[in-house]
Amino acid sequence: MHVDVDELRVSTAGPESTAAPTCFHCGERIAAGVMFTVRIDGADRMMCCLGCRAVAQSITDSGLERYYRLRESKAAKPAEPIEQAAGQLEVFDDLLLQSQFVEGTAGTARTASLILDGIHCPACCWLIEKRLSAMPGMRQAIVNFASQRATVSWDAAQLRLSAILKAVARLGYRAHPYDPRIRSAWLEAERKRQQRRLGLAGLLGMQVMMLSLAFYFTDWPDAEQVYREFFRWTALLLTVPVVFYSADAFFRNAWRDLRSRRAGMDIPVSLGILLAFLGSVEATVTGRGPVYFDSVVMFVFILLLGRYVEFRARGRALSQLDHLARVLPAMATRLERAETGLRERAVPVVALCLGDTVLVRPGETIPADGTIVEGQSSVEEALLTGEGLPRRRGPGDPVIGGSTNCESPIHVRVDRVGAETVLSRIARLVDQSQSQKPALTLLADGVATWFVYAVLILAAGVGGYWSQMQPSQWLPITVSVLVVSCPCALALAVPSALAGAIARCMRGGIVVAKANAIETLHRVSTFVFDKTGTLTLGRLVHLDTCALAERSEEECLAIAGALEHGSEHPIARALRAVTPDGADAGSERRNYPGEGMAGMIDDTPYFLGSAAFIRRMTGLDPLKLRRPAAEEGIGVTFWLANPTRVLAAFSLGDELRADANALVAWIVARGCKIVILSGDTQTAVDALGALVGVQHALGGCLPEHKVEWLRRIEEQGEVVCVIGDGINDAPVLAQAHVSVAMADATDMAQASADLILPEGKLASLRIAVETAARAIRIIRQNVAWAIGYNLLALPLAAAGAITPWMAALGMSLSSLIVIINSTRLGMGRTG
Amino acid sequence: METLFILIPLSILFVGGIAALLLWAIRSGQYDDMERPRHEIFLDDDDRAAPGQGQDRGDGEA
């Protein structure tokens, strides 16, 4: 069997490869030689890796296998080994840390809000809620699908927070406690305030309209003037809360605009409301002239509805940002000198000082920039540098805060903390790029200001004219002009379409974090991919095993798994993910960082590692047996040998995402340029470019270079969409016109991204672009309609042909048409 | 017609009651999640009868 990693990838990434079995849990392709099953609903289901199996097992063990029948889409593949992820959660039991985000830390009845990652259908909420509710000591667990949050209340005497978080992790989701005080509390309060205003305006508005019907169709005989009076006073009573409570926000905004000498939309709006209301009050008190309470309430209601739609669209975007405000387990293990030698002590990262020595265990994140003083290991810096494979590091070598220690414990002397670290430097780069981001907004504020001035001048002119010509008519006509010209439909045109587009994107598996990305997305002319984790999965996976001697492929995998037992090296993780667990760990295992592993199994020594390592340990040359095809690309080949024979070759590679080829083909068909911009070596980038059919591939780029390159092509007039995931990508993402971050991207990358692909499906990007194009079409229709309506109705109102109630009704209808037009976006199938 | 003097104040009282109910509903979070409840009917068939219990351990599954 001739195995070539690249060939293998091409063959599997083709469209709809029918033969390959897919994972029942996550839907990914199952590699050859992998046999994991879980019994679900009376049948053995195939799983692609240990992670999926563990999650599926945990779901069935809790008796919640109905989840699989309820769900609307496949689950996300668990990002990291469940138990490892779960192990890190114990820091959350720290009372000091809990006091930041848990209510009731003084007693045992505690409540916390959790942000959940990985939820994509209501069945996920059901699953989590069921699982948590069944835990002893859980008082209440509520999962909100709209906001992707859970509120849990538990009894600390029976249940620990880490146990709750672990239970969620075992179901394949990630839960992060967060401090709700930061932003969402404000959002919550504002949403409820708006709902109260809107609800009250609607409810009382209906009553006022009902009473007003009597005015529309009845000529009051003189004998019944008393009822007319009564109806007026009742309508006045019902309108008062609408004007003074519901419309209060417009007055405040108008007052604020006036004080800061700006012309906002709220000024003519407030003027219209107040004029109509005060005129009607006067008419009611004096018993002469018409009343316009109906117009007032309808006007306020429609305006509030528009504001609410806009707020929902914006609020959804804002609350996405809360995913970044999560409380990080910012704890480090400091080594302190004590009488009995070194003592370990958990301290917050912010308390670390220069010269402190910290212990970093395998799998942990290095808390600050420093130098290794003790221990040999390899360190994964992929998120910072884009380099795919871990680098070997020993005493005296520098390490960067934020990178991950992979193999064995190391002691690190802290050299830089806080603002001086590499991480902070990148964060500053993000801020800079964001502030210099080219603004491409559809409706500039300037237009609105101009419009408001025009309306105010027109209304004053009309009012002045009619007060001269026909003094009894000046009030209703001026009110009509103000109401008719109210740019409600115009104000709704953009937010309602954006809200529809955002909802549609969400169903298509893409989170729109910044709504104005929609305005830009359809104009993108260049797509830039960062390689690690965007076109590829960004982690090493086992691609193939090739047995070279008497042992079968399964046996070789089992031996390799035993040798790599307990190691956190990405290669070990990739191998272990496809080997059955429960196998005995090899004895006398020895780790040669950056080279390989050696160990005894059943009294036979085995060696697992690079070709050079095998040659050094056994004298055998594996390269004679097989051409190392993968070595040139992003993949690696690892060899398993005993002292006399080379047993197997394992191909590991960063696997191409299933839909990468399809997406690239679509972009090319659209006539857009496509570029790979990566921190990886040029050869690796070239290999990937050839694989997906991208000619323009740049390797060896530092974050600064990427930003520079991007700025240059943006100056040439290209509209650029960048798809990235690492911390090193964050500045580039911030610089781009539109930026997309992958689900497993680092927090910082997500923070600077406009769109997030939570399910990691590249195909969603296509949905987003197509939705954006439709949204823009609909926005144009809406704006054309709204302006057309205003232009038509304004002269009629100024001529006195429209009474205020007709103006309010026309304005409502016009707004309604805009909203209905926008809802077309949310309808229909999503890819 | 005189009955209007009774009926309209009465209806205002009703409206007041409804408004209070609405404000209560908003405050108690009835409108917090507008997306999930419409799926709820598919998710739970029997055990919603006892809300907050969540004790089923899958014995009834087939």
Descriptive notes:
- The complex is a heterodimer of chains A (831) and B (62).
- Chain A has 831 residues and is α+β, with helices and mostly antiparallel strands.
- Chain A folds into 5 domains: 5-60, no CATH class; 82-182, Alpha-Beta Plaits; 186-321 and 446-497 and 775-826, no CATH class; 331-432, Distorted Sandwich (Calcium-transporting ATPase, cytoplasmic transduction domain A); 540-655, Calcium-transporting ATPase, cytoplasmic domain N (3-Layer(aba) Sandwich), CATH 3.40.1110.10.
- Chain A contains 29 helices and 29 strands.
- In chain A, a hairpin with a 4-residue loop joins strand 23 and strand 24.
- In chain A, helix 17 runs antiparallel to helix 28 (763-798).
- The model of chain A is unreliable at 1-18, 323-329 and 434-445 (pLDDT under 50).
- Chain B has 62 residues and is an all-alpha fold.
- Chain B has helices at residues 4-27, 37-43.
- Chain B contains 2 helices and no strands.
- The longest helix of chain B is centred in the first third of the chain and has 24 residues, at 4-27.
- Chain B is elongated and about 55 Å long.
- At the A-B interface, helix 6, strand 5, helix 8 and helix 9 of A face helix 1 and helix 2 of B.
